Amino acid sequence: MIIPDEVKESIRERVDLGALIGEYVRLQKSGASLKGRCPFHDEKSPSFYVHPHRGFFKCFGCDAKGDVFSFLMRMEGLGFGEAARRLAERAGVELPTSDPREDEAYRRKRQRQERLLAITEAAAGFYRDQLGAHPLGEIARQAIAERGVLEATAETFRLGYAPHGWDGLTRFLERGGWSPREAEEVGLIVPRRGRSGHYDRFRHRLMFTITDHRGRIVAFSGRVLPPPPGEEEDAKGGKYINSPETPLYTKGEVLFGLHEGRVDIRRRGWVLLCEGNFDLLMLHQAGFAKKEDIDAEQSEAT
Length: 302
Fold this sequence. Notes:
Blueprint: H1 5-14, H2 17-22, E1 28-30, E2 33-36, E3 48-51, E4 56-59, E5 65-66, H3 68-76, H4 80-91, H5 100-133, H6 137-146, H7 151-156, E6 160-162, H8 168-175, H9 180-185, E7 189-191, E8 198-200, E9 205-211, E10 217-224, E11 240-242, H10 258-268, H11 277-285, H12 291-301
Antiparallel strand pairs: 1-2, 2-3, 3-4, 4-5, 6-9, 7-8, 9-10, 10-11
């Protein structure tokens, strides 16, 4: 993709470099600049400096440096073209058209994807609210507490509760004006057999929110819970029910917890894989993801 220099400069001017890098790195004020631990190598003392007004960053530990384009390319492993597209969308800058048909197809695909992502985001909010508001949410909260998961961890990973019954989410989405066809397309609801209407895919389940490496909600995983009082356990339901593959979600391309751990993975150069959803939460909570950041926060508090 060939982008004129004036368009690149417009993107640099409109994208807040400090805000962009702050989505990956915990930054602190240092005079007119910002500083933090470098996302590209493992270090205990911050040597990574961001100069938002001058539009560049530099690490005095590993010599990584550059502007908004080079940061996003290196951080996300992107080519220049894709990095430019993302930054242009963020900045509200129109990129020059090389192939009108290709660009129009890309815009339609992006608009469609944004619409579907908005539905999964709404569903995640619904499940999160139901965890505290639904009369049976206590069963899910108890399951979380029994595994030693702290509220802060549950909030970070957006654990929720899919309510008991057939159509709690279905009715919520209808009230919000969401299309049943689109909700079905992302695997949230299922068409009723032999008659019109839909029912919820996830019912009376502890809900794990699945994000892609960019933090966008693309799927869900629902863990079985003890039955409500007075009801027998459903022997037909599996321990976990997961979202089917959808336009947002391909099972082999998404790794639970990657978004939350991506910066430390790049810093350290290794990955610790575990089998279960709860296992990952407990490792994260124990400090495997951001121990140094936690220590820094505790030090500042004292």
